[in-house]
Amino acid sequence: MGYWMFIFDHQKWYDLYEKNCSLKTQDEWYAEGKPNLAIGLIYFLTGLIFELSYIPFMIAMVRKEFFQYSCYKFMFMMGIYDIFILPCNGIITGIQVMKGEHFCHNPKLYYLTGVTGVVGFYGVTTLCVILGFDRFLEMGFPRLAKHAFGGYKTYLWMCVPILYQGYVGFQLPHIFNIKIYAMHHDPYNLIHGMENNSLFNFPAFQTFFAWNNSLIISFLTFFYGGLLVITKMRTKNETSTISKAQKQMTIQAICVCGEMFAAPLLHIFMLFWEFPVFIEILAHFSWICLHGDTPIIYFILNKSLRKAVMKMAIPSIFKFRDSFLKSSVATKTAANRVDASISYIQA
User: Fold this and answer.
1) What is the pTM (predicted TM-score) of this model?
2) Which pLDDT value is given to residue 338?
3) Is residue 13 pLDDT above 80, yes or no?
4) Which residues, including other chains, have CB under 8 Å from residue 330's CB and lie 6 or more apart?
5) In b/e form, how buried is each residue of 244-269, taking b as 16+ CB within 10 angstroms?
6) How many Cβ atoms are within 10 Å of 324's Cβ, its own excluded?
7) What's the gap between Cα 147 and its chain centre?
8) What is the mean pLDDT of residues 187-198?
9) CA–CA separation, 138 and 72 (whole Å)
10) Which spans in the chain are helix H?
11) Is 251 in contact with 135 (CB distance < 8 Å)?
12) Which range is the signal sequence, renumbered to this chain (predicted)?
């Protein structure tokens, strides 16, 4: 049902997704769309700003001083996911909302952006569970953490979300729906005569999605709840060997993945019940923020990363300023020479 069908059984994908688009003309599909400049701009600008702000932190994280730690490897991989997801759930959907385009205006593009965003979400949530497990062992059982995540084993753990994405490829994806300004598993939802298609609402998919999100919430609660308890206990213990860096990385991991609780829980309810459109909009906006506000958390909580980014940014600013000043001086010098030549000729 998922992207494997798009790749290996395209005719079946066409019959399920694109064939119904021929039942209406392009003008009729435009009439089904609901353009909204304000919501579209919010989605677009939020996605774009988050996308651009992520880049310097990604560059900083690959430095040896950071990348030697397993948690930074996981955070870097999470950043790769987010950079691919933000154009799909923020930038492109923002343009789609501003134009009021239904799925049928460009079925392949909107299908692939939906698949990328949703499959990426599964990957990021899986990574958050692994990151929580890593931090849990590091803080509570450091010797065991070295055996579980030391050396090349970190890279083996990084394969888990990729393998899980392969399995998710058999599941039904979510696609942006212009009627509700949010993702929905049925691209024809709220289209008269085409809604409530059993192929988009079968129980097996609902069961998988509900179980996936429930397990994510359970694992996150266990690992990050345990982290909070361990951190508090070790902070109170005067003989504790907890370092400032360990505490900082733990708090940062909790903040980065803490918001993963709300989105999966909300989408479980949205799978079985219809909500007002403003709730759907808030859910989609929270999904954009879930993948994009991580650089803000890094900037506020991670002093080392913030310094590394500032060191990269400040020389660039000064270099730009110096080149601008040099060009200004050169322009003024050339202008003075021209004025002097004109004065000499006139004399």
Assistant:
1) 0.83
2) 45
3) yes
4) none
5) eebeebbbbbbbbbebbeebbebbbe
6) 10
7) 30
8) 81
9) 13
10) 3-8, 10-13, 26-32, 37-61, 64-67, 70-86, 92-99, 107-140, 142-149, 153-168, 203-236, 244-258, 262-272, 277-292, 294-301, 303-346
11) no
12) none
3-state secondary structure of 275: coil
Residue pair 148/163 in contact (Cβ under 8 Å)? The answer is no
Q: Which amino acid is at 204?
A: A
pLDDT at 344: 47
β-strand partners of 177: 182
Two tokens, residue 255: 């903040």
* 245: pLDDT strictly greater than 70: no
Cα(149)–Cα(135) distance, integer angstroms: 10
- Nearest by Cα to 71 from 122, 118, 143, 139: 139
CB 298 within 8 A of CB 252: yes
Angle between helices 294-301 and 244-258 (to 10 degrees): 160
- Count CB neighbours of 219 within 10 A: 17
Structure-token pair, residue 9: 């059984």
Nearest to 55 by CA among 288, 298, 302, 303: 298
- DSSP letter string, 131-200: HHHHHHHHHH-HHHHHHHHSTTHHHHHHHHHHHHHHHHTTSPPPEEETTTTEEES-TTTT-TTT-S-GGG
Comparing C-alpha atoms, which of 156, 162, 180, 159 is closest to residue 283?
Answer: 180
pLDDT value of position 203? 72
**pLDDT digit string, tens, across residues 76-90:** 999 999 999 999 999
| 132 in Cβ contact with 224 (< 8 Å) | yes
Cα gap 160→232, rounded to integer Å: 30
DSSP label at 241? -
Q: Domains in the chain, start-ordered, CATH in brackets?
A: 3-192+199-301 (1.20.1070.10)
| CA distance linking residue 99 with residue 251, whole number of Å | 41
